[in-house]
Amino acid sequence: MQNKPSPTCPSVRILLVEDDLHLAGFVEQAITDLGHEVTHAYSVLDALGQLESGTFDLAVLDVELRDGVVFPVADRLAAANTPYLFASAVYDQLVPVRHQHVRFVAKPFHVEELQTAVREMLIAAA
After folding, report:
1. How far apart are CA 121 and CA 48, in angstroms?
2. Is residue 8 included in any domain, yes or no?
3. Which segments constitute the Response regulatory domain (predicted)?
């Protein structure tokens, strides 16, 4: 049986996939303010490497990255039953059908909106 983390437990590991360094710092701070550990990936390739080398309780994914769209990462997360959400400026209608059930936080967003989404996803996964 997999040990499910509490949404407020500091041992929660979150993968952040964002290629805008300024925004990534902002998002990372918002998540660490909730008491969670963040691993940042800057590209699809970097994110896939992070998934090979570790496990995560949740992922926050930008859709369009410098080396392509993030959907291969989302596919890997879905296959591993790891919850994830999209935080992106692209229209949610551009998300493939296989990922349209996933929560979408539209950029620009308020920090509280992202934090609420993270909290709610962790509660739902617990």
Report:
1. 21
2. no
3. 13-122
Range of the domain at 117: 13-125
Do 28 and 40 form a contact (C-beta atoms < 8 A)?
yes
Q: Give, as one character, the DSSP assignment of residue 10.
A: T
Q: Into how many domains does the chain fold?
A: 1
Q: Is 97 exposed, middle or buried (0-12, 13-18, 19+ CB in 10 A)?
A: exposed
pLDDT by residue for the chain (126 residues), tens digit each?
A: 333 444 445 479 999 999 999 999 999 999 999 999 999 999 999 999 999 999 999 999 999 999 999 999 999 999 999 999 999 998 778 899 999 999 999 999 999 999 999 999 999 998
